[in-house]
Amino acid sequence: MTGPGRHSRAEVPIGRRMAELRARRGMSQQVFADRIGRSKSWVDKVERGVRTLDRLSVIETVAAALGVAPAVLLADKPHREAVTDTEAAVERIRAALARHDPPDTESPTVRQLDDQAGYAWTAYRNGHHAQVLRTLPDLLAATRHTQHAETAADPIVRVYRLTAQTLVKLGKPHLAWLAADRAMTAATGDPHRTALAAISLAQALRALHRGRLAQTAALTAVHQLDRTPSRAFLPDEPGLTATLLLEAALAAATYRDATTAHDLTERAAHLAAAHDSQHQPDGDGIAFGPTAVELARALTAARLGDHHHAAIVHRQVVNSDGWHLLPAEHRAAHLIDITHTYLDLGDPQAAGRSLTAADRIAPAETRTRPTARTALTAILRTGQTSADITRLATAIGLTRP
Question: What are φ and ψ of residue 327, in 5° steps?
Fold first, then answer.
């Protein structure tokens, strides 16, 4: 039983956590104080709980000196349990990717694996990332048992793709690249499966700032689809091709090739117009239609530095009928991305509205993604915060610097 003055592990004060991390790194209070530009007395008081450590700017300085993310120090703040679970889940995913032995428990059949992967993709599209993170380690373990079955190729690709895309969201691009590469290997040269895997590979490479490689991966998959005689019989082929073209366009924008980015986006737009429909994503997470193309157009403009155009396109899309047909994850992820565009435009109020809108649609997007936390931190630093932003910051565990 936890008595007065004592704390469970989940309730360890931030000062005590700072002391533990400092001690693990072999730093004395004086050495640590010198690194953060404070006095030894200040460090001692924080560690004993005499002084509070709740200013975001100070927390970031302390975290940087300790070599950890600010979220690690904020473990006792509201909703920290979700962050802790996320970090632990990533480690379980890492362990599952590192293992190659058959799982200890009985694995599902190929059909069961496909069904379970489908459930996980549904959770992903709805923005239920905690559920996805709980599911992925077991799904990855199951793929080790079924990897020799030819019929297992499709669900295995789906599992590795979902793993890669989830890890990209969580700011783990190297681990995401590993999962995407596994998806490419599991595709066994099949053009359709390879194209699906290439989407995740391109995303991981873009997250690693390897835009040219990402573009090559996406366009190579498009060329393979174009050479497939049976492509006309694949109902999702237009959406798959368009998604790859948009990934290639975003990749081109990362190294400021505006002409290529524009041409690729227009090719995707022509495909969307030719089929004239708004598709909900299928079991492989492909959302296709004019709305998805326009969202990509906005993000491409932002990456090319044309933030005004990106904001204009964004406003047009969110006011269209197609916006609400997109899955929650897609809409929330886009809103977080466009938050950075508004910050670059010097409009923290619009950035705040975008971020809180994302939180209403899919809270896990804003509360687990590092890029959302970075945007929230930037908004707080402007001092121009709405009540909604203040509430979100409090929920996540950040305070105004």
Answer: -65, 160
